[in-house]
Amino acid sequence: MTKSKPWISLSGIGLFAVLLLAVAPLVLTDHWLNNLGKYCCWAIAAVGIGLAWGRGGMLVMGQGVFFALGAYSMAMHLTLETAGDRIPGFMVLYDPLAPLPVFWEPFRSTGFTLLAIVLLPVLLASSLGYALFKRRVKGAYFAILTQALAVALATLISSTIRETGGDTGLSDFKYFFGFVLNDPANKRMVYLIAAALLIVCLFAVWQLYRSRFGELLVATRDAEERVRFLGYDPANVKLVAFVVSALMASIGGAMFVPIVGIITPAEIGAAASILMIAGVAFGGRASLFGPALGAIAVGWGQSSLGSTWPDGWTYILGLLFIVVILFLPNGLSSLPARFTAARRSPDRQPAPAIVAAELEEARP
Amino acid sequence: MDALIAPLLNGSAQGALLLLAALGLSLTFGQMGVINMAHGEFLMIGAFTAYLVQQVIASSDLSIPVALPVALVVAGLFGLLLEVTVIQWMYRRPLDTLLVTVGVSLILRQAALQIFPSQGVPVEKPGWLDGQLNILGYEWPLRQLFSILLAAVCVAALAAWLKYTSFGRRIRATVHNRDLAETSGISTRTVDRLTFFAGSGLAGVAGVAASLIGGTNSQMGVQYIIAAFLVVAAGGIGQLKGTIIAAWAVGVTLSYFAYWTTGSLAQVLAFILVIVFLQLRPQGLVTVRTRSLV
Hints:
GO cellular component, one term (chain A): plasma membrane
Membrane topology (chain A): Multi-pass membrane protein
Subcellular location (chain A): Cell membrane
GO molecular function (chain A): branched-chain amino acid transmembrane transporter activity
Oligomer: heterodimer
Number of strands of chain B: 2
InterPro entries (chain A): ABC_transp_permease, ABC_transptr_urea_perm_UrtC, LivM-like
């Protein structure tokens, strides 16, 4: 893989920051700005998927789980903040004297909530990742296990109506850490926080990709055995990438709640997790900007086409998977490179790096 | 007594359905390293085939036995179509086939939703499956026994086919060592297609059995695919024996957990159990010892 010069990526991140933080708030209406904020949340999760899947070769099909940890932590805090001293409305619905569930109590504290958004995904991802990677569970096994976890969590939340709101989810948040959410200025602020976090995440993975760790991660993806023989433990390398990607999904989920105003199991289940993958595959899994741009594009498609023409959108999404994975395994971001390579030497196609990666796993 | 025996029997029936769904998955995964996420939708196709056959043959006593081979062929042809159009181009990237077939499953599910009524269609049970069998005081529905018998017949047929026919020998040779099989003059391409046909066809048969137990609708495949894959993972890839034991164990465990707790908590517990099990035996229950680095 050729190394691009650092200033190209840096100016790319800078351009992205200017577009999201300065141009978008000036150009877009409040409604669209809020929508863009939602896409940014998915994009934050997508940047993490790009790290784990694109660079690390771990197909994470259950990022909805970590998205949910952040989202529900935030939603519980906002619900309690809105309810004040009383019990949240939906709990009293079934039993007027219902006590607040024990695990809700600590989420009254702002500090604990913020800590939970960071620590919960890190704890879950590291214990799950440790258990799986140390026993060399990989490839399709890993993918399906993460997906199974997302299905299990979504069913669990759906079935615990009294504790988590069930299928209707948590909604009607009035305050965001003391700010009134109905105020357009505060909505703008929430958007800016989400967009800024996306920029921070992009910068973080850019640094990771440049580091020795980034090289090791790609090496693990392409030839895990060789990395092991060189004296590194691939399990640790993969674990770090998996935990970072889980953390990013959680941050995306946490910002999703004040922006969208509702979190339900449908936003975190198997279908939602697959939607997150779709954006990454579309944009280009191994590139720096591909996952974020792809997630924004798919998010836009989901909320515009998905609501006006839901039947057609499902077909488009299905075809997107088939066409992109079949013909463009490195996503749209590989198009320019392909184009220039084809122009320089018409008879030679650029070797897609990912093909080599998966030859390694060809034998189950 | 009832509390102990009921989950065991219900779970065994559930395990039989899982086994039917997992057999094909295990076959294609073991041989080609391909994870077919549209496998659950092939099961759905089998169930809808049972419904369509019932529209032609009014008598439900007769239509279900007719539907079984028809579903095998219809789902098998869908599988063959998928192999020829998409999967054959992706053998060098097995992990990517997982995502491509996710796309296929989205499309099939949406198509089913639009072709058939969204609340699902009724598949009538044949009269000879109406009764119950009294086992130690528990009235066991005969249709559950039917899925167990169907699974047993399919497993026996598949095992015999793999063991005694020349196609079966070729499939086993390809599973063991693809390169060597090819060097010996076996067309692994033909073998792959045949395996995909058989595996998808088995899902269709499972769909007919599933249509007699649960509802027939566009979402029915989703609930089987993950559980079926966990069965394959726990049983060991491409191993009939392991798949049978794992399917039964997962079915019964889920059933007992669901009985003691709730259905949703049972799923979470079963998931944790599979993770723990993979700690003990990362390659699954039954493994083939090789010197290759995995």
